[in-house]
Specification:
Layout lengths: L4 E8 L5 E7 L8 E7 L5 E7 L10 E10 L5 E9 L17 E7 L5 E7 L7 E8 L5 E7 L9 E7 L9 E9 L2 E4 L4 E3 L4 E7 L3 E8 L7 E4 L5 E9 L7 E2 L2 E4 L7 E18 L5 E18 L6 E9 L2 E9 L1
Parallel strand pairs: 12-18
Antiparallel strand pairs: 1-2, 2-3, 3-4, 5-6, 6-7, 7-8, 9-10, 10-11, 12-14, 13-15, 15-17, 16-18, 19-20, 20-21, 21-22, 21-23, 23-24
Length: about 325
């Protein structure tokens, strides 16, 4: 992969090769997702699969970390690990608990790495239970070793076991869900996979200062919440637009220079020293075209260069030490 790829367990494959499991930030994933890789007996890569977001929370904040894999008698693979977040982000909506409650996450695939089923355990909210290892049982099921705090005494370093019933699913019931977001907002749920021919409801939630505009792609609608029944893989785009109007080039003591801009490089001057600055540039359709974060040492000036080829009017959102200014920038 082009970024971080970590292997935490492996097993022999039925054909004499090997199956590797861990987690990755490569292969087009947003944050850490499960990584399943098949290599032959000579060490040559044959295929790669990734899995994640079983509860549908924002993938930008979710860690799906795999720590165990075993080959199964049907020629497939069982993968186990944990799914949760380690940030200030916290979301709810799934019966298995909030995003910051870690769950054991199991993935079952066929011999080509295609998803047969996935699940989070326990299915209700009872505390943190992240899987660390998985083994097969004589009845065709699985035994999962967990890092848990849901049993008594509720200490953070307990360990436990979960028994998962025998597997009888031989054909995938899932379709791939590809959601793209344009602008600042969230869509719930954001599951990577969805059960085929079941009704799916998607809800768009704009960030502060933004509004939801429309869904487009395989479904077209201007309603924030839509329901449909997909029978095959599908893609959808959720578009959000900034509600910030065009205002004067000076507000809350932040000034852009030069303005109009001709060479892409501009400076922002503050009337008093600042320390933490976040800059975000948007076009008039609400699309983000650039950004920068700067940790200053009590200075009054920060510079930024726009991507080449931009022309027209842009909106610059400046957050300095939690105080926000919104400025108009003309690029010639």
């Amino acid at each position: 992969g082009e970024r971080s790829d970590q292997c935490f367990d492996f097993d022999l494959a039925p054909d004499g090769g090997y199956i590797l499991a861990g987690h990755t930030r490569s292969y087009g994933v947003v944050n850490w997702d499960y990584l399943l890789m098949k290599i032959d007996s000579s060490g040559n890569e044959e295929w790669v699969s990734t899995f994640g977001q079983p509860r549908g929370y924002n993938p930008a904040w979710i860690h799906d970390e795999s720590y165990g894999v075993r080959s199964t008698p049907d020629g497939g693979y069982i993968v186990a690990g944990g799914s949760g977040d380690e940030y200030n982000y916290s979301a709810s909506g799934h019966p298995a608990g909030r995003s910051d409650e870690w769950k054991a996450y199991l993935v079952k695939t066929n011999g080509e790495g295609k998803l047969l089923w996935e699940g989070v355990y326990p299915p209700t909210s009872v505390g943190n239970n992240a899987a660390e290892f998985v083994a097969l049982t004589n009845d065709g099921g699985f035994i999962v070793f967990t890092d848990t705090d849901s049993e008594s005494p509720p200490q953070p370093n307990n360990f436990g076991f979960m028994k998962i019933e025998a597997d009888t699913i031989t054909e995938s019931r899932y379709i791939a869900l590809d959601i793209t977001i344009e602008g600042d907002g969230e869509v719930y749920p954001r599951n990577k996979y969805h059960i085929k021919n079941e009704t799916l409801t998607l809800t768009a939630s704009p960030e502060e200062g933004w509004e939801f505009i429309s869904w487009s792609g395989d479904v077209n609608s201007a309603e924030n919440s839509i329901s449909f029944t997909p029978g095959d893989n599908f893609s959808i785009l959720a578009t959000f637009q900034s509600t910030v109007g065009l205002i004067e080039t000076s507000l809350n003591s932040a000034i852009i220079y030069p303005n109009p801009l001709t060479n892409g490089l501009f400076k922002i001057t503050f009337c008093k020293p600042v320390y933490d600055v976040l800059l975000s540039v948007y076009d008039l359709n609400g699309r983000k075209t650039g950004g920068k974060r700067a940790c200053l040492s009590g200075t009054r000036e920060v510079s930024m260069e726009l991507p080449q080829g931009l022309k027209g009017i842009y909106i610059l959102k400046v957050t300095a030490d939690k105080n926000t200014s919104v400025l108009k920038l003309l690029v010639e």
